[in-house]
Amino acid sequence: MNTITSLFFTFSLCYSTSAVSQSFCNQWKLVQETVATHHYNPKAVDDAMSEAVFDLVIEAINDKGLHFIKSDFDVFDKDKLQLDNYLLDSDCSFLEKYVTTFEKRIQESKDIISDLSSATLTYKGEDTLHFSRDRSDRYFNSLESKKRYWRKTIKYKTLSKYLSEVPKEKQQETTFLAEEKTYRAQAIESALCQLDEILTVKNGVQRQFENRILDAYVKYQDPHSSFLDTQDKNEYESELATSQISTGVQTFKNKEGAIEVSYITPGSSAFKNREITEGDIITSVTIQDTTIDLSCFSNNELQRQLQDASVDEVVFNIRKDDGVLAQITLVKSKIEVEENNLTGFVITGEKRIGFISIPSFYTDYESPNGLGMANDVARELYKLQKLNIDALIIDVRNNGGGSMKEAIDLSGLFIDRGPVAILKNQAGETTTLRDSNRGVAFTKPIAILVNEYSASASEFFSAAMQDYNRALIIGATTYGKSSAQGIIPLNEEDEESDFVKLTSKTFYRATGKSHQAQGVIPDITLPSIYKDIASNEASEKFTLANDTAVVKLKARPLPLITKEQLIQNSIARVNTNTIFKTIIENNKKLAISLDEEDHIPITFTAIKEYLKAREDLWDSFSNMSSKNNMLTIENTRTTTEINGYDATAKKANERLLKNMSTDPYIIEAAYILKDYLKN
């Protein structure tokens, strides 16, 4: 860029920023007013707000300290306690320095990376990688430290590309050094592509900063509220448009520029697989033996590839919320909107135990009766009872929630009228949610499997069943989200209006107590790979406090379930179970791998060993299934008939039966119910 062009570009940018600052301030005011009107517990516009929003914006835009220099923060920090004043005074001119500085630093990083193309790089251990779970640095101390960072990063990515693409038996240091420049060029291209995308995504840097501030202001109210611009809204709408033949994985480009799983289509292979869940980050996909790195890949292009009619199977490489990596293979299948999206099974033996897994509390908003998950459960329950089951396991592990109506309806299948929860709004007014239907669909013993990722509606249901003494809750303490959100346009008269998703109500157990930030505590606890590792509601910033609600209609629970002997029997089995011992050991390994700070020299051998250790750790997680204590599981007659004419469904069913029959949690839940039936 020559000097004249550069001056013109800078002048144009400054003029543009100044020209739109008032418009942005007006929008920020509108967001503030909408939050004040509709949020359950709106917070004051004061210095606390200013500091929180400032930190959230910097954390989001600065990508863990990868862009700015210390001198930038000497300027930025002056705004830390001024954002509230800027909002109240409608003065948003402060944005200009952030936009111009950020663009300067991104271009600076691009120049540094580009220069590495012709640099002489060696891999003798003179550079060391520092891996830390929580990087506290907000900036580089100097330009030189930034250059060192990018040099080490490109060297690591170059080695990683070679080691991930070359078969293990052919990996040699001499071969790598001979081909190093080829892999380095790929690493540099990928890094430059990601930086270019930062500059162009969401209509440029100016709009990114505006959206970050608005989103931070809303997230300051609570972690489940957010700002959605019209582009976000359109992306969310397009996610729900699924092809007839699909894996069922819908994605969007999140605010960090990563491809994130946003929706799992009920009835799809992903829905039935359950290993891939909403919120997972997809790092790459393998389609027809070609691995596609998604670090610089558009969401539209990914969906186009996934929906290609010639593609039958997709391998997803994902990163879970806790940092664990996984590789999941999904076979595309036909999705019928009208079909039952759940499948019931029977665990055979002296006692026959039904099993239904519920990945989400989906509903059909277009149906006149709003039929969804609860209706599907009722249909499967009918089939299972015809097979003379003695008890039932309902699996809501990794179920992030969904429709509250479905949670009420599902509870109503197992209790005979009465309150199931209490809703409270901003004004403190309460509404009792109740099952108004007489009778129950199933009267025999029930066990509900939960874990740290069971949240919201699945917690609502589990808590209701626990309060009514209707089921044994088995597993790990749940996530702890006891709030409900709604999407509200900033301007109802404008079709192009931006939106905010706001927490408008909190819900409570029928007892008036809340599981907010505490979770539903199981009656019988089982070891978990995520113990003390998984993020939960209590670990989120600005989470709502736990409180209580006044009970206006008392529940009439069944007699207490005698649990002491069931707990002791379960503890005895778990203590001698090799799979649960492995789970406990792997939990400790995972905790260490996440918490310890690794300092690894950038050499061929050291990086190879580091990547192999990560791969081995994941392999140990994925192989935690029982080999000697398998269950025998039968399909219902309907599933058997479908398998008879649908080869794809049969293959998926065989894989599912194998996974369930060796799942230690399902096995232990079955043992617990068998003990209960003996009483």
Describe the structure in your own words.
The chain has three domains: 18-219, no CATH class; 243-334, PDZ domain (Pdz3 Domain, Roll), CATH 2.30.42.10; 344-678, 2-enoyl-CoA Hydratase, Chain A, domain 1 (Alpha-Beta Complex). The chain is built from 20 helices and 22 strands. The strands form six sheets. Strands 20-17-16-13-12-11-22 form a seven-stranded mixed sheet, sandwiched between helices. A hairpin with a 5-residue loop joins β8 and β9 (325-331). α1 (3-38) crosses α5, α2 crosses α8 and α13 (404-412) runs parallel beside α14.
Provide the fold topology.
Layout: H1 3-38, H2 47-61, H3 70-76, H4 83-89, H5 95-115, E1 124-131, H6 143-165, H7 173-200, H8 205-219, E2 226-228, H9 230-239, E3 245-246, E4 249-253, E5 259-264, H10 269-273, E6 281-287, E7 290-293, H11 299-306, E8 313-319, E9 325-331, E10 333-334, E11 344-347, E12 353-357, H12 373-386, E13 391-395, H13 404-412, E14 418-424, E15 430-435, E16 446-450, H14 457-467, E17 472-475, E18 483-489, E19 499-509, E20 524-525, H15 564-576, H16 578-595, E21 598-603, H17 604-622, E22 633-635, H18 637-645, H19 647-661, H20 664-678
Give a summary of the structure in a few sentences.
Its EC number is 3.4.21.102. This protein is α+β, with helices and mostly antiparallel strands and 679 residues long.
